[in-house]
Amino acid sequence: MFPYKTSLKLNKNLKEPLYLQLANQFILLIREGNLPPGTKLVGSRTLADLLQVHRKTVVACYEELLLQGWVESIPKKGTFVNKSLPLAQKTTLVGTFKTSKKKSSGFNFYDNNCLSEKKTEKRKGVIYINDGTSDTRLTPTEEIARIYRKIASKKSAYTFLDYSSTHGNVKLREVLAVYLNNSRGLKISKENILITRGSQMGMWLSSQLLLKEGDIIVVGETNYSSADITFQYQKAQIKRVSVDENGLVIDQIEKLCKKQSIKAVYVTSHHHHPTTVTLSAERRIHLLNLAQKHNFAIIEDDYDYDFNYNHAPILPLASHDSSGNVIYIGSVCKTVAPVFRVGYLVASEDFVNEAAKLRGYVDRQGDALLELTFAEFIKSGDLDRHIRKLMKIYLQRRDLFCELLKNKLGDYFQFEVPKGGMAIWVHLNKQYSWSEVAKEASKHQLEVGEWQRYDLVNKKHNAIRIGFASYNDEEIKLLIEKLKQTFKSIKKVPIKHF
Amino acid sequence: MFPYKTSLKLNKNLKEPLYLQLANQFILLIREGNLPPGTKLVGSRTLADLLQVHRKTVVACYEELLLQGWVESIPKKGTFVNKSLPLAQKTTLVGTFKTSKKKSSGFNFYDNNCLSEKKTEKRKGVIYINDGTSDTRLTPTEEIARIYRKIASKKSAYTFLDYSSTHGNVKLREVLAVYLNNSRGLKISKENILITRGSQMGMWLSSQLLLKEGDIIVVGETNYSSADITFQYQKAQIKRVSVDENGLVIDQIEKLCKKQSIKAVYVTSHHHHPTTVTLSAERRIHLLNLAQKHNFAIIEDDYDYDFNYNHAPILPLASHDSSGNVIYIGSVCKTVAPVFRVGYLVASEDFVNEAAKLRGYVDRQGDALLELTFAEFIKSGDLDRHIRKLMKIYLQRRDLFCELLKNKLGDYFQFEVPKGGMAIWVHLNKQYSWSEVAKEASKHQLEVGEWQRYDLVNKKHNAIRIGFASYNDEEIKLLIEKLKQTFKSIKKVPIKHF
């Protein structure tokens, strides 16, 4: 007889009823060839005895197997494994019903070499250099959660629980239109807004709609690596123009336009990523004029509009866009916290509608409860108050960080104090390389991060972005100290000229 | 003199400081050619008088303009609009600084004809026929919001606020691995799970990784239209096989495999969408064997696993997948509420990792607070209790709906009582067409919805899916009544044979 007793294991502590546990184990035995088609199953009384369960349990199990089509019942003969079931594949080992899901797939899929893994592993006691993230300890999470619960507890809340618009919650779109018009000089209405899951989704959707294989997109010679990768995924042709102290060199874009038809320009005009420079007024107008003349899109990623220390925020290109050439992308992720995936894509109505259609097949829709929470958070002025609070703190951190970097590590680093944002663009003395610094720093519990991503075209500029906003004063001092120790242990005499 | 007084409007009630309001309006005037390069600006004292503001406000405004590069200051001569600014494009009308964002874009983008808009508009007093959505009034929203707030209010909450794994929150992945193993007979660990924003994202990511132009994917002759569209977006070749009372006809897939190399099969094995039939045991094994032999992927969309009225849920194909051929997709959207965008993609580790990499560029990451909320909701047994509660209610609704449909509308409709799920596959008497029924129903405040999507290949099967779960008893009676009135006003004598 088949070794039922050893092959069938019942666990009375599980929530799953015994008859179902039994049925599912039978199915596995059948599926994997241990009980081949045509096999007669042991009588219910015998099996109940073997397993020490009530006979009803076995009867219920056999009925379930019958219903599902795994066995057939032949009157006066008994219960048999369904003869019409195909034999299990030979490669399936007999008795392997405890195998776990494989590591590798049984099919081929496309390997997108351009994609890089986003590492977020954090070990205790280690300081991680980031490219300019916010300090999540300052997030008003309790306040946000309070609003969330209030909204979810309203009697009318159920109306927001169902499938809803792929454009995002209409109330947040209305509130955002007013907020962006007031704070950034836009002239939009809710029809120009698609609520996204943060800037990255705005970029993804734009890239999908604008670019196909071979299409040209212009970016800076150094550029935000996630943007590059998003465009590369579409197999777009990336053309790079220089970045100087006034941002992207627009004259080079003008020259490109004379030779080729370009589809889009990606720009972080407020503070260029990674170098932190601001696109000058002159170049802003020049770029807009070019876009209008040559009908290309400007993807304006305004990731750090809220943070300016030396003067008021500079209005985005989108505020001057009377011809519908700018796709303006932003989010609350840098300002409030990355976990709150609420962002926006602002553009002409036709583009917004097409992007909304597409997002219906990407993630179907956003989270209306969270979107309503942010509508209230913005409308009440809480967001603005939060920004003002952060501004003071981050300004102080920038100053401390830059001061220490200059005084303690001036021999190794060269940098300009950034006028805004949350990061410094730091050039390393040419005698060193970030690869050796990163390796050595690691020994001092300091992780430099993916320094490679700042030099995707191998220009050897030897610079990386170092965020200052996420560390408190103590942490800043510790980070600088660890960097100092790192250089000490590299034991080179720094040369004075960079 | 330039009409400063009429062109510059200050509003003391705005939060934006006056000097900034002024500066931003100046920028618009400059940008749009009203104040061309080289124009001398009026003196600060004069402007202060004109606008009746303090002179300091105007001075601060001019300083801001200087800092941003819009104007230049020439000692002893005054303040001038920066001469090096390019002229604004001619097409920009003078004086249009109140224009709103355009309806159409100033650039071209790809029009993906395959995408269809997801309509979610709801008018009061109208009953909408859906394809099987849940009743959001039964959602334990307060309980979920309570857990959410509890998690967000913990001291350690800030650790979840930062950028995190693109695979999803690790705790939810662990809880789900156990939950899916126990409830669905899977044999997985957290490494096999990617947390998505619902089933649609699982489908999107799979489609991106599996299919390129011309690749073959097999689906049922009638199929879930969003799946079709997702594959069409990738320009895949869709091959259709018949669907009978036992689900997809796998013999037809076997024949296809002999002729061509197929990349994937999309299957809703538990209850075929839209017809609600269950894939038989025999065909399950056959399909798995074929996948193993021909190395194709099975995308198993298990959208309604939780709802079975006649017998226990049937284990998914994924529970028998020892060779890594199945990509198993599910979510809590149908079970709890669509607003909670939490789903999962279960597959071999290599595929999960590649999908996680890709999702990093789609929406960067999920919502860790919501994911933790669902980890607790599942682990505490709340989800299971909720499902048991729903099961009783939906079973009763199914029976009422089917009974009324048969007794009151038996002349017009033919259908099988579905064994599970939340919808009935309803064939219309051939004398009628859904287009005329939909048109007429609309007059009775009943919206039939997009009946076209059930017959994408124009097979004229004259059937649509009618959801029963989202209506209470009164609403079911009303819906049936409205359908009856609809047929009455169409005024045809139904023929008896379908």
From TrEMBL, chains A, B:
<dbReference type="InterPro" id="IPR036390">
    <property type="entry name" value="WH_DNA-bd_sf"/>
</dbReference>
<keyword id="KW-0804">Transcription</keyword>
<dbReference type="InterPro" id="IPR036388">
    <property type="entry name" value="WH-like_DNA-bd_sf"/>
</dbReference>
<dbReference type="InterPro" id="IPR004839">
    <property type="entry name" value="Aminotransferase_I/II_large"/>
</dbReference>
<dbReference type="GO" id="GO:0030170">
    <property type="term" value="F:pyridoxal phosphate binding"/>
</dbReference>
<dbReference type="InterPro" id="IPR051446">
    <property type="entry name" value="HTH_trans_reg/aminotransferase"/>
</dbReference>
<dbReference type="InterPro" id="IPR000524">
    <property type="entry name" value="Tscrpt_reg_HTH_GntR"/>
</dbReference>
<dbReference type="Pfam" id="PF00155">
    <property type="entry name" value="Aminotran_1_2"/>
</dbReference>
<keyword id="KW-0032">Aminotransferase</keyword>
<keyword id="KW-0238">DNA-binding</keyword>
<dbReference type="InterPro" id="IPR015421">
    <property type="entry name" value="PyrdxlP-dep_Trfase_major"/>
</dbReference>
<dbReference type="GO" id="GO:0003677">
    <property type="term" value="F:DNA binding"/>
</dbReference>
<keyword id="KW-0663">Pyridoxal phosphate</keyword>
<comment type="similarity">
    <text>In the C-terminal section; belongs to the class-I pyridoxal-phosphate-dependent aminotransferase family.</text>
</comment>
<dbReference type="GO" id="GO:0008483">
    <property type="term" value="F:transaminase activity"/>
</dbReference>
<feature type="domain" description="HTH gntR-type">
    <location>
        <begin position="16"/>
        <end position="84"/>
    </location>
</feature>
<dbReference type="GO" id="GO:0003700">
    <property type="term" value="F:DNA-binding transcription factor activity"/>
</dbReference>
<protein>
    <submittedName>
        <fullName>PLP-dependent aminotransferase family protein</fullName>
    </submittedName>
</protein>
<keyword id="KW-0805">Transcription regulation</keyword>
<dbReference type="Pfam" id="PF00392">
    <property type="entry name" value="GntR"/>
</dbReference>
<keyword id="KW-0808">Transferase</keyword>
<dbReference type="InterPro" id="IPR015424">
    <property type="entry name" value="PyrdxlP-dep_Trfase"/>
</dbReference>
